[in-house]
Each structure stands twice: as structure tokens, then as C-alpha cells.
Specification:
By secondary structure, this protein is of the alpha/beta class. The protein has one domain: Nucleotidyltransferase, domain 5 (2-Layer Sandwich). It has 8 helices and 6 strands. Strands 5-4-1-2-3-6 form a 6-stranded mixed sheet. Strand 4, helix 6 and strand 5 form a beta-alpha-beta unit. The chain starts with a strand and ends with a strand.
Length: 240
């Protein structure tokens, strides 16, 4: 089985839109069950090497925004050194047996275009799962499992029913018969979710902050066509 590990960046609410960060982003990585152990070992080795002083801290996880801005558990660390670690983690992503997919929803354009716009969280999930469906149809032709970063029992329960309903409807372009009902897990339970966090952060920096360096460093890992086109194949930007 293949898995789609997903995280998000920014808040999906449409009544609160920060003009400097108009995009809500959901994205992550596709990985096969057979490669899961290799991916987890690579992540653990990175943590062991880069953070030997805190790797045993309960609940410790890699978090792109916190590392890049020296916040939370990373506060007090040297900012330049932390950004070097961030760069090395993106380099690690390039060597993992994964494929990246993501959807970015421009909330201002969504509100302007549609009188009753859908929740960006649901839309982003659906369009990203559409990429997953096409990957599965091309590669394995077997059912794949989306795994989303848990936000707590209440929110997980709320979104689970909504996402399952969206999956059953599919999109106006295709149905999603190969995409199983989503699971919600923490990155401690499913370490590849840490990769999803970094994928979303790279797109956030590129689209919301006009800083494409991180995104460009992993661009080749995105699902793409034979000509190397990512737009529409590995990255959906909606609405146009």
C-alpha cells in the first residue's frame, strides 16, 4: 500500500484572511509501505546527528517554521545554525524514496469567485487526493491511505466526516475510488508527517512570502509529467 502523509500551513478560515499570507496550503509526501522503515530511519538519524542534546525530549519533532525562526523548543539556539539544519533537512528530502504533492488555495480569490465558497481545508484535501488517485492509478492500481496531521480528537472527528463525504463525491474531473478514508495521526506515530510539514513550509515561503529558495530545493521531488511540469500534476494552485 502507498500512503499520502499530509500537513497544512496557514489557517483555512475565510472570515480571517491575512493579506500578507493569502494562501492556505496542504501537502506532503507519497510513500510506499515497503519504504516506510527506510524513511523513518533516515529521519531518526537526522535528529540523532543534528539535535543530540534534545532528541530524547518527550514529543520532540522537527518543525520547519519553529526551526527556521528559532521558536518553541528551538528558541535560544543559534539562528544561523538552525537554518543550516533546515537546509540539510530539505537536502535529506531529496534523497528519500518519496514523491511530493500539494494544493495551495488563494483564499481571497476563492471568496471573490464563489458566492458560497467551500472550506479551503476540504478543497485542498480533495485536490491533493486527486493527485494521489492519479499516482495510484498509474503506479499500483491499489487502494492508498491518506494520513493527516492530528489536531486533537475534536477537530479530527469534525474533519473526518467532512473529508469522507468529499472523497465519496470526488471532483468534477474524476472519482477517487483508490483513495481510502483518511486517518489522523501525530508525527510521533507517523514520522513521515514531519516531511509533510517541511513541504508545506517551503510552499508557504514561496507563495506567501515570495521566497522560493526552499521550494526550489525540493522542486524535483514533486509529481510531474514527462516534460517536468509540476503545475497541475504535483502542485495545484486554486483558483486560477
Amino acid at each position: 500500500m502507498d500512503y499520502l502523509y499530509l500537513d497544512e500551513s496557514n489557517v483555512p478560515r475565510l472570515d480571517v484572511i491575512n493579506p500578507s499570507s493569502p494562501y492556505f496550503i496542504m501537502g506532503g509526501c507519497i510513500a510506499s509501505e515497503s519504504d516506510y522503515g527506510e524513511i523513518c530511519q533516515a529521519l531518526e538519524a537526522f535528529i540523532h546527528k543534528e539535535f543530540p542534546e534534545i532528541r530524547g525530549l518527550a514529543g520532540f519533532r522537527l518543525h520547519a517554521s519553529y526551526m527556521y525562526n528559532a521558536r518553541d523548543v528551538f528558541s535560544g539556539m543559534n539562528a544561523a545554525e538552525l537554518r543550516g539544519k533546515v537546509t540539510r533537512f530539505y537536502r535529506l528530502i531529496n534523497g528519500l524514496p518519496i514523491q511530493l504533492v500539494a494544493t495551495a488555495i488563494h483564499k481571497e480569490k476563492l471568496v471573490a469567485k464563489y458566492p458560497l465558497p467551500q472550506d479551503p481545508y476540504n478543497l485542498a484535501f480533495l485536490y491533493t487526493c486527486e493527485r494521489f488517485q492519479r499516482h495510484l492509478a498509474e503506479r499500483t492500481k491499489t487502494v492508498g491511505q491518506p494520513v493527516l496531521e492530528s489536531r486533537g480528537p475534536g477537530l479530527d472527528k469534525l474533519y473526518r466526516s467532512k473529508l469522507e463525504s468529499f472523497l465519496s463525491m470526488g471532483t468534477k474531473w474524476t472519482s477517487l475510488p483508490l483513495v481510502a478514508k483518511p486517518e489522523f495521526k501525530t508525527c510521533i506515530e507517523r514520522p513521515p508527517l514531519q516531511v509533510a510539514d517541511f513541504v508545506c513550509y517551503a510552499i508557504h515561503k514561496s507563495l506567501n512570502k515570495s521566497e522560493p529558495q526552499l521550494f526550489n530545493s525540493i522542486k524535483s521531488k514533486f509529481r510531474q509529467n514527462q516534460r517536468g511540469v509540476i503545475d497541475g500534476f504535483g502542485l495545484i494552485i486554486y483558483p486560477k
